[in-house]
Amino acid sequence: MFGLVEGRYCLGLVFHPRLGVWIPPGGHIEPDETAAEGALREVTEETGLTATLLPPPHPRLPDGYPYRAVSPPWWTVEIPVGPDAHTGEDHVHVDHQYVALAHSGRPDETAHPFVWRTEADLSEPEAIIPDARGQANALFAQVHELVLSQTGWPG
């Protein structure tokens, strides 16, 4: 999740207490929600902020298509994990990874420690979980244009 902080884009991260690392907000979806709805709910629960999903480049549905489009993730990946609060067995998480832009709320009212990181901050080894560093760097390179094209906000 990106946010415009003091005139520059920053990446919002939460501290994961069990893993001991800074990660993008996220979690499991509830039975009555889509993955996109779950992503937005988790952002609010974990950061105190509300956000808008920024869809990846993808073909638009034709005009007049009769069904509601669901915001697609930027990436869908399989991550092998060990036992956790949901199961006592090794298993695989299928992560739907979204990109969002924060627009309101108070990050001091959070369930987890929260921090804004600049692009330069990501060079520090402890700044972000290693497997998300490459994605974050790639997104920083295009966040200004992405926000402008999706929202019209100049940033």
Account of the protein in words:
- The strands form three sheets. Strands 1, 2, 3 and 8 form a four-stranded antiparallel beta sheet that branches. A two-stranded antiparallel sheet has the order 4-7.
- The two termini are 15 Å apart.
- The model has no long low-confidence stretch (mean pLDDT 91).
- It has 155 residues and is α+β, with helices and mostly antiparallel strands.
- It has a single domain (2-58, 67-86, 95-149), classed as Nucleoside Triphosphate Pyrophosphohydrolase.
- The chain has helices spanning 35-47, 130-140, 143-151; strands at 2-5, 8-16, 21-23, 49-53, 75-81, 91-97, 100-105, 114-117.
- Helix content is 21%, strand content 29%.
CA-atom Rg in angstroms: 16 Å
**CATH class, please?**
Alpha Beta
User: Helix coverage percent of residues?
Assistant: 10-25%
* Low-pLDDT sequence parts: none
Instruction: Give the second-level CATH assignment, the architecture.
Output: Alpha-Beta Complex
Describe the main β-sheet briefly.
4 strands, antiparallel
Cα shape: globular
Please name the CATH topology.
Answer: Nucleoside Triphosphate Pyrophosphohydrolase
Which secondary-structure class do the elements indicate? alpha+beta
What letter string, H or E per element, gives the SSE order? EEEHEEEEEHH
Number of helices: 3
Oligomeric form of this entry? single chain
Report the portion of residues in β strands.
25-35%
What's the number of domains? 1
Mean pLDDT, as a whole number?
A: 91
The number of strands is 8
